[in-house]
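Lecture notes, part 5. Sequence design as translation. It can be helpful to think of inverse folding as translation between two languages: the language of shapes and the language of residues. The source text, in structure tokens, appears below.
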């Protein structure tokens, strides 16, 4: 054997080498990229996601689910009989809450895999909304099975399992809503915002701020806009309330003053210092909602970005330039507050699409860079400087500011079905329906 051939065989053997740890039938530790070790878990689930603390992995095939230890790959529990339609981790990563197809929620201890308790409704189905920001309260609503109408809000104490209260509307056929689009908690969890009707559904809804602990009403207000897309607190301390409507969005401050912003908005965001308000839209300012939806042609979207100061004065708004229809998918400030960052889904014909990330200068809205990210949605790292996206068999880590790919990670021989980032941005997880891999990104 020649020396060169021997070196090649040795290198190939080293690349294929792996060691077993934990449960040998599930775990393979190995290196799937020259400089980036990965943890491999044998799993038939297409979907995989980190817990908030990065210690656990939730994987699912759409109904049955499994939970894994993200450090060593050991299986925490494998639920072979229970069907979960939805799930959520508690903010501290200690618990998993699942919603089944019946009338209950289940709380699971992630450290032991044990089913701690169930939360049940009355004659109606329980649908989970969220944990409170401190993780002490579970909020859900009851839904009428035959109409899908939200009947009441229920709140439970996580540790004891006791029901704290049920909030009902004046009449049962009128909705009380708290959910991702219809209500919110302040960041400290001490107050909650709900929407309800005190008269008829056709009249403007009433928004109420309640004390989370006591349930007492602190304040209520209403708006003539009966249809809207989002209601929630805004700002670093939740000092504003935001409501987005067809062609505008509205912000209330603590003095009950309301400001109207002329941009049909996605969910607005505020800068960490509370000096700026940022929002985007998939249609021009002042456009009519029906202009995008015509029976004879598919929707055509023209994304716009707008920046205002805290007093409601417009600093600039810009159209995000594309050669075809595009949809805004995310929008935020960069960590150093010098730029605006947005991601878009851009139509490419034949019902296909690709994703792009754009950066604008915060002072004048000047476009700085555009990154083409392929056909799968990119995930922005918590530091705002990096992003990951995947193609069929690999994924790449990008520096957003320079517009350059840093590393590409290989190892899947099947199509990647899901990609997720840990909350610290240091690890990624990929799943192809046969194996789950955890990767060290080394973004420091």
């Amino acid at each position: 054997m020649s020396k060169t051939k021997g070196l090649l065989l040795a290198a190939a053997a080293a690349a294929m080498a792996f060691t077993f740890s934990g449960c040998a039938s599930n775990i393979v530790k190995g290196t799937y990229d020259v400089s980036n070790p990965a943890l491999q878990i044998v799993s038939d689930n297409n979907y995989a996601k980190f817990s908030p603390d990065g210690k656990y992995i939730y994987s699912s095939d759409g109904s049955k689910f499994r939970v894994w230890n993200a450090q060593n790959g050991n299986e925490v529990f494998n639920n072979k009989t229970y069907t979960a339609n939805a799930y959520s981790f508690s903010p501290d990563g200690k618990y998993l809450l699942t919603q089944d197809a019946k009338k209950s929620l289940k709380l699971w201890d992630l450290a032991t895999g044990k089913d701690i308790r169930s939360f049940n409704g009355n004659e109606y189905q329980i649908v989970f909304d969220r944990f409170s920001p401190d993780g002490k309260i579970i909020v859900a609503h009851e839904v009428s099975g035959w109409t899908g109408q939200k009947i009441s809000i229920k709140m439970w104490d996580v540790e004891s399992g006791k029901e704290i209260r049920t909030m009902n509307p004046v009449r049962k056929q009128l909705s009380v809503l708290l959910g991702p689009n219809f209500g919110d908690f302040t960041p400290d969890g001490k107050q909650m915002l709900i929407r309800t009707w005190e008269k008829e559904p056709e009249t403007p809804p009433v928004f109420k701020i309640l004390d989370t602990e006591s349930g007492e009403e602190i304040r209520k207000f209403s708006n003539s806009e009966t249809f809207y897309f989002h209601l929630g607190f805004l700002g670093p301390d939740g000092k504003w309330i935001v409501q987005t409507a067809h062609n505008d969005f509205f912000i209330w401050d603590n003095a009950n003053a309301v400001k109207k912003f002329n941009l049909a908005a996605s969910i607005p965001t505020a800068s960490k210092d509370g000096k700026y308000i940022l929002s985007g839209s998939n249609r021009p300012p002042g456009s009519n909602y029906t202009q995008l939806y015509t029976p004879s042609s598919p929707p055509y979207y023209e994304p716009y970005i707008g920046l205002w100061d805290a007093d409601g004065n417009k600093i600039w708004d810009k159209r995000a330039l594309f050669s075809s229809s595009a949809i805004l998918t995310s929008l935020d400030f960069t960590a150093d507050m010098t730029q605006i960052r947005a991601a878009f889904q851009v139509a490419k014909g034949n019902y296909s699409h690709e994703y792009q990330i754009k950066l604008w200068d915060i002072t004048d809205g000047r476009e700085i860079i555009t990154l083409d990210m392929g056909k799968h949605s990119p995930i922005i790292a918590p530091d705002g400087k990096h992003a990951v996206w995947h193609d069929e068999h690999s994924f790449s880590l990008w520096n957003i500011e320079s517009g350059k790919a840093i590393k590409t990670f290989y190892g899947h021989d099947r199509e990647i079905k899901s990609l997720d980032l840990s909350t610290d941005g240091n690890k990624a997880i990929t799943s192809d329906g046969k194996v789950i891999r955890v990767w060290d990104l080394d973004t420091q």
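The translated text above is only one of many valid answers, since several sequences can fold into similar shapes. The radius of gyration is 24 Å.
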